[in-house]
């Protein structure tokens, strides 16, 4: 059994660690609120641009490179969104595992995978395993802004529009020689963590480009009532676009894709803070239990020490008494 001094030293050490984990838990909790506020602030713009794109899609030919699967596609870009810091439980591990599954699936289908990484933890993970990546961005995983994510958003869009047969211009964050154009790709996939609740964050794979149009079919009512004003009250108005719908959709599609990718960064930021809060709360709870166990052991050791001291005193007093009687 450890000595009483060692036990007290361990208790002080665990209490110091507990203060750190508790502080990290409180910081992560406050950052979750800020991240959720940013998601809510971006929601009105996201809703409106989605509604506009739906109206344009219904009036256009949908003949745009961002909306078409390419024949003989051979290069696929994968963006892995990780965190800049650790102490967030299995957050990064789950992302890397999901990314590995996606990359294997793409390679099995004959694609050449081009990896991009966001977050210092992702950069360190792939560097340690000597797995290549052609671009990395970091420093904003917990608080992404439109400006911070500009280069990664624009490069993925430009690279897709260039296709694997063309090149996209150099942007900061790419690993190639500065100023040299880089080869494009035929599809873009994003691996990120979706924030579902304070306790649940789920790694997701999303195909960013090409966009998969969703065609909805609607059954029209039959009979005389169909022409009644009351039955047609829910009919959507017919819009006229100037310039034409195809021109507008070509102009808005990059903004729509860019907004979708930024929303994933916001989701990942909220998920990172939630994962860190859960991990730090578990660490704090474990530290509390460990202090209780160590305190109980220390009390038992102290009690045994006191009992031994009392026994020695009684024994010594008895020996003195016996020696006095013999004299």
The helix fraction, in percent, is 40-55%
What's the shape?
Answer: elongated
Could you give the order of strands across the largest sheet?
A: 3-2-1-6-7
CATH architectural name of the largest domain: 3-Layer(aba) Sandwich
Radius of gyration: 31 Å
The number of helical elements comes to: 5
Low-confidence region ranges:
none
CATH class identity of the largest domain = Alpha Beta
Terminal residue distance = 43 Å
Major sheet size, sense and barrel closure: 5 strands, mixed
Query: What's the order of the H and E elements?
Result: HEHEHEHEEEEH
Estimated structural class: alpha/beta
CATH topology of the largest domain: Pyruvate Kinase, Chain: A, domain 1
**How many domains is the backbone divided into?**
2
How many strands?
A: 7
The overall pLDDT, averaged over residues, is 88
Strand composition percent = 5-15%
Determine the CATH superfamily of the largest domain. Answer: ATP synthase, F1 complex, gamma subunit
Keywords: ATP synthesis, Cell membrane, CF(1), Hydrogen ion transport, Hydrolase, Ion transport, Membrane, Transport
Organism: Corynebacterium matruchotii ATCC 14266
Family: Belongs to the ATPase gamma chain family.
Subcellular location: Cell membrane; Membrane
